[in-house]
Amino acid sequence: MALRTRTALLAAPPFLIAILVGSPLLDIVVVAGAAVMAWEAAYMAWPERGQHPAVAAGLGMGLAMLCLSLGRLDVAAVVLVGVSVAVLNSYRRRRGPYLALAMVYIGAACLAFLWLRDHPGIGLGLIVWLVGVVWATDVGALFAGRAIGGVRLAPRLSPNKTLAGLAGGVAAAALAAAALGAGLPELGAALPWPGLAEAAAAGAALALAAQAGDLLESGYKRRFGAKDASHVLPGHGGVLDRADGLLGASLALGLAAFVLQGGA
């Protein structure tokens, strides 16, 4: 726990500063993060092939995200599809589809995160609310799971997660969402939650999406017999281990915002 805390104290401030500053600093951070996560996903899928295919996948993902950050969605889509097809051809049949889906998932979630941050007037508030809710989910789930324990949530995917942890994460997320909603009135004016109860409900729903992202990453690791995505973040494992909930929540909130805006 001490190592986890030290790593978090070192890694969190640069990430928060990038969120505050926005583009281009946040674009650089997200591009780098996406590339590392793609490398982690590829190396977990086939570690016996060494680093070369994994590095190629990471560089391809980084290039796709760079094109997205420069506003070239068409080029980014071509690159991302090309990377997905390449890994399908390069990896064994039983592993290729998992990795190709992982590439699309990571890319789409990172795109959603940047798209939310770029919303005029409310982008910063949206991301602060999103990150705050996801972190509250993680903390609430950790402490509730350890204090209460009990029935396992999904033992085949992640044997350490419990229903009590899920409930604690959802409750903490609801409280954080309401508190942040009260401190960010511009969100209430732009989004369909006129009161704190609606903000809390939205936070609880986002907590479920974050937990789903966590379970998805756990299932991916379990599929390939990996304990951690990598050792990039001491005490936490890899970037995927730390960002799994944020990926799921970013994708869910991005899709929700896109639908509420009528696809604009």
Short recap of the structure:
The protein has 264 residues and is mostly helical.
Multimeric organization: single chain
Give the spatial strand order of the biggest sheet: 1-2
Number of strands: 2
Mean pLDDT: 83
Radius of gyration: 18 Å
When the domains are counted, the total is 2
Q: Which class best fits the helix and strand makeup?
A: mainly alpha
Largest sheet: 2 strands, antiparallel
N→C terminal distance: 44 Å
Percent in helix:
over 70%
Total count of helical runs of at least 4 residues: 10
Taken from the alpha-carbon principal axes, the silhouette is globular
Low-confidence segments, ≥5 residues, pLDDT <50? none
Share of β-strand residues: under 5%
Query: What letter string, H or E per element, gives the SSE order?
Result: HHHHHHEEHHHH
What does this protein look like?
This protein has 264 residues and is mainly alpha-helical. It folds into 2 domains: 166 residues, no CATH class; 94 residues, no CATH class. A two-stranded antiparallel ribbon has the order 1-2. Helix 3 runs antiparallel to helix 4, helix 4 packs antiparallel against helix 5 and helix 5 crosses helix 6. The protein is globular.
What tags apply to this protein structure?
264 residues, 77% helix, 10 helices, two-stranded antiparallel ribbon, mainly alpha, 2 domains
Draw up the topology in text.
Blueprint: H1 2-21, H2 25-45, H3 51-69, H4 73-90, H5 96-117, H6 123-148, E1 152-154, E2 158-162, H7 163-183, H8 185-190, H9 196-223, H10 239-260
Antiparallel strand pairs: 1-2
Helix pairs in contact: 1-2, 2-3, 2-5, 3-4, 3-5, 4-5, 5-6, 5-10, 6-7, 6-9, 6-10, 7-9, 9-10
